[in-house]
Design a protein that fits this description.
By secondary structure, the protein is mainly β. The protein has one helix at about 25-30; strands at about 10-15, 20-25, 75, 80. A hairpin with a 5-residue loop joins β3 (about 75) and β4.
């Protein structure tokens, strides 16, 4: 007997991060998109003024960003340049 898991039809849905994706019928019916990976680059400006390079999925829809890997040359307390 066929079940919803056999259905291969896909539907567009809105993910929590604001991006859209296509999901299988069984996921749309469950209305939980936690298992859907969103690979859109988040692009938010971080406190260090660099852009976030993480994806919506990796940054938990903007709740927690990846650590910035850019270096900033600055004068340290000892007077030397560092990053």
């Amino acid at each position: 007997m066929p079940t919803m898991k056999d259905c291969k039809k896909v539907f567009p849905v809105q993910l929590p991060g604001g991006y859209s994706a296509y999901v299988l019928c069984q996921i749309k019916q469950a209305e939980t998109y936690d298992s859907v990976k969103c690979d859109e680059v988040y692009n938010q400006v971080l406190l260090c003024s660099h852009k976030c390079t993480g994806t919506c999925d990796l940054c938990q829809c903007g709740q927690l960003h990846l650590q910035c890997k850019e270096t900033i040359d600055k004068i340290l307390l000892c007077g030397h340049m560092g990053n």
